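Thread: "does anyone have the structure for this chain?"

Original post by V.I.:
We have the sequence but no experimental structure in hand. Need at least a predicted one for the grant figures.
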Amino acid sequence: MGDGSNIPGSPYSMQYGVRVLKVSPNKGSLLLDPTPSNDPWAYDLDQIVKPGTTWSALGGGVQVRTSTTASTASTGQMQVLISVAPTGASHWASSSGAVTTTTTLSAPSSAPVGSSLTLSGTVSAATGSTAPTGMVNLAVGFASATASLTAGSGTSSTFSATFTAPSAGTHSASATYVGTVDYAGSNAGSPITTTPVVVPKAVTTTTLDVLPALVAGQPASITGTVTASGTMPTGSVTVSLGSSKAAANLSNGRFTVSLTPPAAGAVTVQAAYGGSTALATSNTSASATVMSPSYGTTTTVMAPASTTVGTKITVTGRVTAVSGTPKGRVTVTAGSATASADLKSGSYSVALTPIAAGAMTMTATFAPSAAPHTASSAQTSMTVAPRQVKTVTTVTTPKFVSGTASTVTGRVSAAVRGTVHIQLGSVTVTAPVSSTGSYSAQLTPGGVGPQPLTVSYSGADAGAAVYLTSAVSKNVSVTASTRTTIQPLPAVSAAKTLLTVEGSVTSDAGLVSGTVTLTSGGTTARAAVSEGRYQGSIKLDRSGVVTVRVAFLPADGFTGSAATATTTATTALTSGR
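Reply from O.Q.:
Generated one for you, tokens below.
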């Protein structure tokens, strides 16, 4: 160390202020070169300087102080804090030595390998009123770290560092305060035992498939599965049947072994999974009966070649053997339909109702109930046609007005899907049939007068059922809206005089003909409408302001309409007239 400048009052240049030559054998002091020269490898005097003492260069003007040492047991090396300052610097304590310190270390006694562990402790000064400062070297096994002291209360400072627990075993944990020019170094140690991390093995479940018929002296294939959450088990399974035992490696979680029961009677089949590095063992067992050597059987099945969904059919057949009459039960399946019956003198008969359409294979499976006969099965083909469902379409009609949207509703009995086509004159709309068979659609007719209305159901294929088409037709009347107007009424001079009322009845569909009624008070009259015009008279029966109402009566495809107007009869009625 040093900056290469000349030391005041000294003939020597401080090119290398202090050079550490080697570690002293007693590991308690340093071998130093107190009089460095310009030649970095020339030493004219060697001297041992103990830690915690102050040493002055022969040329004066500079002092070197070793504050403390720290040994590393794994390498036999020392760490030394060396301070250099001008001679007589006030911040150095007297040459009698630094303040004694005490280091304490807190460390866990054990920790799992790879876990995080924290070393902490304090450095306390024996005298004085301030807390030590500086650095603490910490180590766990071969791992090391440096922590700065944090001033605490009184004359104590704290430190802390985090390590990763090393490999399993007992390791030394140490804390070495390296000291400063004012505080002597100190250290503390503690053993830590690290333990291997035990990862719990995943739970497995071993199951056996349904056991086959077991016959003494005859090989039987026994299968099963080993499962575990989130992974596919590997390894082997050992299966035992009485005194017979065999092992098989898992393939996609499945195992198959072949075992030969040695004798007839009740047995327990056991399957034991041996586990793996990540999976726990598991086992299962099932009770079975080993039958005496048996005779093979032959099953036959007879059924109609074709039928319809929902139609009950009769399926018959026989189960025979080279010796004896087999006993047991026969199960017949066709798609998802199934039926069973016990053998009677080797024959069986079941009633089966197919519930799905299409080509299917019917299977009859015989399961023996006792030795010495074995299981067998037979198959036959059958075509199941969809059930044909007749439908009836109905319609409810509103009053149709030309150019105005109306809602047509109705039902298709028995249908659960499909579409209806609704045609009124030249206007056609479609509507879906709901799951309840109802439909609804809006239709805006054109033209005026009688028109044919037809609703046609297109039918639907629902797989197991085919809904047949149906239709309904009827004649409906399409009317046109009208507008009735009244020309302004003249005032009359006396009551009970005839008032002439005239006006028009018009429609967008063409010229209107028909009849209007004239009403005022208690009197009524009629007038003909011709080419949209009318004129009529009505006798007033009161004086004052009177109201006249003209109403066009629906006719010839036109809707009714009405209008009102008022006038004044100026002369009061005379009694008796």
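V.I.: this helps a lot. The radius of gyration is 57 Å.
O.Q.: and The chain has a mean pLDDT of 81.
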